[in-house]
Each structure stands twice: as C-alpha cells, then as structure tokens.
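cron nightly-structures :: item 1 of 1
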Amino acid sequence: MKFKIEKKIDDYNPDFLLPIWREGLPDLDERRLNWSYKHNPISPPIVGLLKRAHDNHVFGCETIFPREFCLGGEVIAGGKRGDFAIKKKFRGLGPALELQKYMLELVNNRGLLVAFPNKIAEKVQIRAGFQKIGGIKLYIKPLKGAYLLKKIKNGHFFLFLAPLVDLILRCRDLGNKTYSDTYTAEEVSEIDHKFDQLWEEAKGQFSFVGKRDAEYLQWRYLENPYKKFYFFVIKEKRTNKICGYLVYEIRDNIVFISDLFWNGQQEVFISLFCHFTKTCNRSGLQAIYFNLFENIKIDGLLKKNRFIRKDTITTVLVSKKKLLEPYADNILLTKGDDDF
C-alpha cells in the first residue's frame, strides 16, 4: 500500500483523529483535543497524519507536544511524543516506522525529544532513531496493614493482624524528621507566582528537568479534564515561600504521585514526604505509589522515607542521547512528564 504523511499544526480535525483514537487509544476523546491540543499553553502541538495515497484516507497519527527543558542550567526547546495510533487493518511496521522517522526529523533541529513508549512502540522508536537513557522505577510505601497482608499469598487469612501491622508501620516513620521549626506543609487549591519563584530558583538543582512554571502546572494538572489532581506543598515558615511540592491523585484508596519538585535541599525533601505521609495516614489511605526515572540521589531520599523500589518495563528514550550524557547524574522525570 502506498501512503503519505501530512503535517498539521493548529488544525486538529476530530473527524480524522477521533476514529483512529477509538481503535488505538480508546481512553482519549474530544476533551483531549480541547485541552491538550487547542489550549496547550506552550505552543500548538505538531500532528503527523498517515494517509492512504490514492484516496487520502487517514489511518494513523502521532503528536509531538512542545515542552521546554532545563539542561545543565540552560533552558532548551523540546517536546514529548505521544498519541501514536494506527487503525487495526493498516497496522504494520512500514507506515509506523516511517511516521516515527518523519516526526523525529521534524523536531531534531529544534531541540530534544523525549518518549515514554510501551514495549511494542519502543522497538519501532529505537529503529527510527530514538536512544534509551534509562528506565522508570516504581516506589511504593505501604501505609496500612490490610494493604500489605493482601499482597501476601493467602494473606487474607491473616487480616486479623492488620491493626498490629498498622502500629508497626506507624512506628517505622517515627524517626523521620519534619523540621517543623522551619517548615510547614499543606494542601493548596490554587497555583500562583510562588510556583514561578520556586521554578526559577530551583531549576538548576537538576541536570535535566522539564519546565514547571505556574502556567504549565495550572494547565497540566488543575485544568486536566480526565483526572482530579491535588497539590501538597511545603513552605518556609518565616517567609511563607514554597520550597517544594507533590502533585497526586487518589484511586481505590491509594495515592499516586504524578509529579515532584523541590529546591534540592535534603531536609526539604524529607520533611515534605514526612508531612505527606502523615496526611495520607490521617485520611486512611492504603499506600503511596510513585513512578520516577532512575535517580540515585532521589532513590536514597525515598529509601530514607521507607519507600520500596521496584523495576518496571517502562523505558525513557530521547532523540539526542549525546546531548544528555554530560548531565545524566541528576535527571528529574516523573509520571507527570509522560501523559499529556
């Protein structure tokens, strides 16, 4: 079959995209077009459409979502690839690979492209020119005995021990410091200039990190049409300045952290997670989950907060690995950097 690829910017026809999404990305709908495409605060996403040559029938698509990154203290342009799908009867390596190559060439001279593919898409993207920089780790902190016991084989027979395990888990966290004389923590419902201030002051603490200013956070999380996100912040008592925050959602009584950012100070990180754990315990939540790109520094801090690390099958690919190599020691990429 002969096909061609057409680029679209600021022209997102639902008659083309929605039929493809229904087959390949069934969780997406027209809300995605309004939020992530038409109202993207950075710039309009770039869409590549696969078309059958003889009748222009659209059977595949992929999108590059714009994103600014801070690399070695310098802000660079870039993006994240996503929403890749092909109608079932047209699926094959040829069109998929050519679309990946085409999209990669479109942005290669404009900055760095990041991808979080599943295992099937990963092989295609590597053939197209993407390179692997590492993997995503899953961190889990059990909060309730019932949660732990249900994870054990035949553990439901021992649920009567849950109150005892609850006590052990609470005692486990007694050694964690809150630095309560210096910091206070709370949930906030609005994003203001204090988040801009934190971004400007702390972006250089990480070797590679996606831009997290107030405008981006407002759009990415509070205006998200699919999920309800919450912000938990830690502030300096004396100045009321924000020193760090967590973005999270709650599903089935479990907390899923989507994003994290802080000023790089160890005591801020430890206090943030200690306060957050106490808040989750008071709410009766079962566990905390956090997906994070492998980072030795953050790994050590999470272990101090009693998180358990597990490997996942998710890898992170980039379009220019050499650009990142001098800055590979302290990369901050979270779940929130993935799904736009």
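cron nightly-structures :: done
The first helix runs from residue 14 to 24.
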